[in-house]
Every structure is written in C-alpha cells, then in structure tokens.
C-alpha cells in the first residue's frame, strides 16, 4: 500500500477489510477505474469489466495463477493483465516438502491424536504411527521423486529434496512443450542425481515414491489425477498437490486412500474450496493432510506479491515496463 500511496497522481479506492473483497462492493466501486488489483477470490468476468467502463487499462492479480480471470474478455478489451510469478516460488516449494513429510509420517493422524487428548490410548509400539521415509537409508538407497508439471516451483522443490538423498527425478509436462534434455542433464549433474527424465504421466505415477502436482489449472489439466492414474501408484507412495484443486479428483483420491492404493496425501488446494466441510470425502480420510491454501502464506512472500501487483498496476497506468505481464496474444 505505501507504494501506491506514494503516487499522488493515483486516486485509491480500497476495500477496507482483511478478507476477500465482497463482490457487490467491487461492482459498485470499480466504475471509472484505470486499474484494479484483484485476488484469486475475485472473478474477473465480462460483468466486472463492463462495470469498470472504458477507462480501465489494467487488471493486476496478486497471484501466479489467473484462472479466475476471463483472459479472452480482458484481451478483447485491449487491457493488460499482470500477475506475480517467481516471488512465491520458494514459499510454495517449502510447503510442498512439508506436506510430503506430514503425509508420509502420518503427521495429520498424530496431531489429531494429541489434540483430542487420545495419546494415552496409543502407547508406544514398534511400528506405531510408522510410515515411509522420505530420505534414503542404507537398506533403502533409492528414492524416485515425480512431478506433474516441471516449472519454477517444481524445480525449487527438487532442489529442497536433494539433501534427503533422492536418486531419480521423473516428470511429465505439457505435451506441446519442447523437450529440455540439456537442462535435465544439467540438473542431474548439479544435484548428483542418477537421472532427471521427462516421461509419460503413467510412468511418473508408477515409479514415483512421492508425486508432486505442480502444474497450472485449467481445462487441459482438469482431474489429471483420477482413479485410473491413482491405481497405477505404489501403495507406499505419497501424493502432494500444491497447485490447483481442479487437477485432482477428490472422490478418486479419497477412494485411493481408503482402499490403500497409496499411502497418504498432502493437500494445499481442494476443488470447490473454501466450501470444504467436515463431510468432505478428503477431510474424512485420516491419511490426508489438508491445509487451507496457504502455500504462499509467509509474511515475506505475501508482501512481495502485493508489491509486484502494485508495480504491475503502476507501470501499466503511468507508463513503464510491467514486471510481470501475461502474454495475451492468441486470446480474444
């Protein structure tokens, strides 16, 4: 906010509460705006753009994803679209590793036992609360880590996993993207891995000890993790989703956990969030660790995201290079 308030040529209209902006308030106040900063919870559609009027020049979202923005409608009006990649990469990678550890080591079950005052009902046992170890051991010297999507966040997650002794990295990515064999060889050499290899999604599922879902949302990746894919995974494998809830079929994942197709899951995003009640099929599964979409929720990262969103808006309105602009060529 200081960055915006420091521009006297800008008149600010600010939602006054520390919660998601009320849709009605936004529609009532956007008319005549030159730019708008929105969150993931704000639907940018023709209705909103029509309310803004012809003065609108830029939509700046404080997020790396922009599925909440009708990019065709934005492009059709000749508007600029800003977003906040890069600044949240490390925070999301950190949380992805945390979820893998929590799911593998039955962290959700353990925390629940303590918080419900049930610890006395679970005296120590040789294999009590045991789960698959993320790091390699002398008796188990191979660890294969898989990724669906292998962009900035996936590669940052890979870097964090190296000290655990992982040996192989497998990933699947958009079929339209060109292979990056040279980059993969460089990553393998840099991290002393036996291989970094692009394979088909079925092989990623079959071979991975931990499978990280870190691909963009949208129609092309809707329910890419479904019953068919989950049945291919190892019974000791872990699934982590820190991208978008729509990539994972919640009912299929709940079934996989309930019937033991996989060991556990760590989930930051759920399809239909925040409408996730105690009756949700994933909430009912003890081996599913769920946090409420907090992958970027560090003080440092949220400040950086807000700064980037403000910089994008200022540059678009007052002239200058937007730090992060979505390429809208091909839309509209």
From TrEMBL:
Listed GO MF terms: glyoxylate reductase (NADPH) activity; hydroxypyruvate reductase [NAD(P)H] activity; NAD binding
Domain D-isomer specific 2-hydroxyacid dehydrogenase NAD-binding: 98-295
Signal peptide residues on this chain, from the entry's feature table: none
Keywords: Oxidoreductase
PROSITE patterns, per database record: D_2_HYDROXYACID_DH_3
Cellular component terms (Gene Ontology): cytosol
Domain D-isomer specific 2-hydroxyacid dehydrogenase catalytic: 11-326
Family recorded in the similarity comment: Belongs to the D-isomer specific 2-hydroxyacid dehydrogenase family.
Protein name per its UniProtKB record: D-isomer specific 2-hydroxyacid dehydrogenase, NAD-binding
Organism: Serpula lacrymans var. lacrymans (strain S7.9) (Dry rot fungus)
């Amino acid at each position: 906010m200081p960055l915006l308030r420091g521009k006297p040529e800008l008149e600010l209209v600010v939602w006054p509460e520390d919660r998601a902006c009320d849709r009605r308030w936004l529609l009532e106040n956007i008319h005549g705006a030159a730019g708008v900063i929105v969150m993931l919870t704000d639907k940018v559609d023709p209705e909103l753009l029509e309310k803004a009027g012809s003065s609108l020049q830029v939509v700046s979202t404080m997020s790396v994803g922009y599925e909440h923005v009708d990019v065709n409608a934005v492009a059709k009006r000749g508007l600029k679209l800003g977003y906040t990649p890069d600044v949240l990469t490390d925070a999301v990678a950190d949380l992805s590793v945390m979820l893998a550890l929590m799911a593998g080591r039955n962290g959700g079950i353990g925390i629940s036992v303590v918080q419900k005052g049930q610890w006395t009902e679970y005296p120590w046992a040789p294999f009590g609360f045991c789960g698959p170890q993320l790091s390699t051991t002398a008796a188990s010297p191979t660890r294969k880590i898989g990724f669906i999507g292998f962009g900035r966040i996936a590669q940052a997650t890979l870097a964090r996993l190296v000290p655990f002794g992982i040996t192989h990295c497998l990933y699947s990515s958009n079929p339209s993207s060109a292979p990056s064999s040279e980059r993969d060889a460089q990553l393998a050499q840099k991290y002393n891995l036996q291989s970094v290899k692009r394979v088909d999604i079925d092989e990623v599922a079959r071979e991975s000890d931990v499978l990280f879902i870190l691909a963009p949302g949208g129609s092309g990746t809707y329910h890419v993790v479904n019953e068919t894919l989950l049945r291919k995974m190892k019974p000791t494998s872990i699934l982590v989703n820190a991208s978008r809830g729509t990539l994972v079929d919640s009912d299929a994942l709940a079934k996989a956990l309930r019937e033991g197709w996989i060991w556990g899951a760590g989930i930051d995003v759920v399809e239909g969030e925040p409408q996730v009640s105690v009756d949700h099929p994933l909430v009912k599964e003890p081996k599913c660790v769920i946090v409420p979409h907090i992958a970027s929720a560090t003080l440092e990262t949220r400040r950086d995201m807000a700064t980037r969103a403000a910089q994008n808006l200022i540059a678009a309105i007052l002239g200058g290079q937007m730090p992060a602009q979505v390429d809208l060529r091909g839309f509209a």
